[in-house]
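ok so heres the complex, two chains, lmk if somethin looks off
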Amino acid sequence: MTLDAPTRDTDAHSDENAAVVKPNRLAIIDGDVHTAPSSLSELAPFLERRWLQHMQTYGSRKRHGSNYEPYPKAAPRAMRRDAWPDDGGLPGSSLELLRTQHLDHYGVEVGIMGPLGLSGQGEINLDLSAALATAINEWQRDVMATPEPRLKASIVVPFEDAAASVREIERLGADRRFAQVFMLTRSMDPLGARRYWPIYEAAQAYDLPVGFHVFGAGGHPYTGTGWPSYYIEEGAGHSTSCQTVVTSLVMEGVFERFPKLRTVMIEGGFGWLPALTWRLDKLFERMRDEVPHLQRRPSEMIREHIWLTTQPMEEPVARAHLNETMEWIGWDKLLFASDYPHWDFDDPFRAFPANVGDSRKRQILTTNGKAVYRLG
Amino acid sequence: MPLTGAVDCDVHPLTPVPADLVPYMDAYWRDTLEVRGLDFWETIAYPANAPLTIRADWRALKPRADASPDAMAATLLDRHGFAHAIVNCLFPLQSFRDANLGAAFARACNDWLADTWLSRDARLRGAVVLPVQSVEMSVEEIERRAADPRFVQVLLQVMGDQPLGKPQFWPIYAAAEKHGFAVAIHAGSSYHHPVTGSGWPTHYIEDYAAQAAGFHTQLGSLISEGVFVKYPKLKVVLSESGVSWLPSYLWRLSKFWRGIRNEVPWIDRDPLHYVRENVRLTLQPFDVPDDAATVARVMDQLGSDDLILFSTDFPHWQFDGDAMLPKGLSAAQTRKILIDNPRATYARLA
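and the predicted structre for the whole thing:
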């Protein structure tokens, strides 16, 4: 079976299409670019010898018990089939291919890196989690962001260990090559829980947004009713993990406690936010005596503190439905993301419904990202 | 808009306590409950004194409005002229880990419902509570109730041990389809897992908010596993789901299906198709702001006026006064929601 994304990309590389794309080039801020070392040995220069040996001997052990991910992907490593570098490395490992295929091709001015594989998040062993996070942060900085200033690094934090996370933010937070603190939506406790607060406090102190990317290994089934069977269910269901994050951040009072905190929901789409917001407002109105620490309605806190990346952009049959959904969320709250080099990549020139209009497209592709990340 | 003739597809009796159910149990179970001191069994859902559990004005009535069929009728059916109300008992028997215990309580709950509610008011219809711990025992319970036309649906919770589309549950759907029962999936959890994929949220508000995510999961499971391919006449009613979560979830599911349908090759049509044919949602709670323009846009996003079944979710506090219908529905939409859609959904609602 032919997959959608590679087909679309083959089109994008035709000469005919390139001629159309270039004159319209916008300065794109891409909120989700997945760079990755090809192997543990590429990460080795940044990893303490003790942990390198540990990884070689015992390997990664995450809270879902899989050596990879709980669901086999739709494509090898969930990658676009055209994104594998000729050198045999992983997609996202070759700066040269990343430049030609993505940054140059689409006119990406800034790409925010979101490392997923060897990043330590979800490791049962918290010391290993911290060591890998440190290593991937230095790899991003030295191998990617330093030679290619269009790429900004994320401060990957071993978020189940707040103290280690704070140390990492304090170590790297002043370095402008880092654009955000990076967490995953699946966690041991809902992410508004008090034990994560030091991370938000440190992020706020360094004026860094906190990105919550879908996936993660929190030690629970992926849903409140156990494990679904299929990757399609996991994929469609990522939005539910985002809803858990938003609900928890709001109801625990994280935004009351850290009033300058900016948060970004990554790779969960955005269409789910209005219904959740309406639901939370109604429940808040009925049972605010359960959450007396909240001074404002959930909708106000969400409007002020939460941004969302657009990928995978929802595709209603009637495209007007997408416009009104974006309107409900706020045109200033959506950030374009491509998810390069994954198979469900959104093409910045094709993902938007035609009737969004140029000025709003510019907001989502460029302006909003500049406002959220420390790009000034 | 007059509500005369409406079918209220989700009302709740005051949840029985074990002492109410003991008279419907056999000697072994009566003895077991006594010996083991099983004189209460509650979960953290619907805390007895929480505002959501029963509207304050209904709680204040003597007897409270959900205490008996007469009390409910005075508040709801007589007052508004409903033709029928479908009574869903929320005794949390799904949370037992022991299937035998679950089945004993399911039998007792269903007998209790028939005896103390359905027999007292001819307008009432019932849901067969299933001991979902055992598919085999659930099917036995469906067969046991099939001859009683007052039962029009079977009742499952939105969060249990496993997503409900998995093939192990299919005998339940076969039996339901065979006897014309709709399958209601209602807000609620067995609490065998945390209610979120990231553990236990601190507040009851978060728990209730998370129920909507449970509906995403179950709908994705039922569609992806092919339940509606196997049982094309099955009607699944998503009860107390919140409703407005549905469009954007389907946009996602459709997009993923277009990308990776090779994983579920038996799904040869857009998932939207199965929702139109097989899935319905009860009205309350209707998670949409209280303005006609937004309601109209959400109704348009739902893409069909056939999907919503009228419900009050009585006695849960989902609306104030008599404002049980959202603002801005057209007369035609209202008629469908109140009467036509429920009657088209419930084959046993003669």
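quick notes: Chain B has 13 helices and eight strands. thats all i got rn
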